[in-house]
Here is the input.
Amino acid sequence: MELLQFILNYNAEHMACQSRFRASSPCHYSFSTAFLFSHRHLNWRLDKIAIHRKITIMNTKSETKTYTLTRDETRLMKMMKALGHPARMQIVRYLSDNPQCITGDIVDVLPLAQATVSQHLKVLRDAGVICGTIDGTAICYCLNSENIAWFKAQLSGLV
Here is the structure.
């Protein structure tokens, strides 16, 4: 009951402070005014605020939700996540127009560093959107047509 009364008093003081200043200027009410009453009073107020914050945090924590996905749903989720980045979409678009490209060709088209493009290619490769074959010192990338066909079928099944 004492905590509830403290919260109500604090909110009333805070609202009164806000009404004294214009809405555009922040309220600068602080506990330094409480220090004028006594150091003990200040410690009491700070302790009550800490208790209020702990109670609020404890009351707002929610349980972690878990989802059980099938193997196909997990695969679809990984592909959608990989295609969710604009640079990766540009890479896929470029590979659909220019099959069998090496990393250097893709770097020349995109306004990204070679290391960044390589990281995006790795994400697309891990998701199964593209595949790469080693050609000497370079890797030649192309779209994985089987996985793209599966992806299209899954998307048409969702809609």
In short: The helical segments are 2-20, 32-35, 39-60, 71-83, 86-97, 103-109, 114-127, 145-158. Residues 39-60 form the longest helix (22 residues). Strands lie at 101-102, 130-135, 138-143. Confidence is low (pLDDT under 50) at residues 18-42.
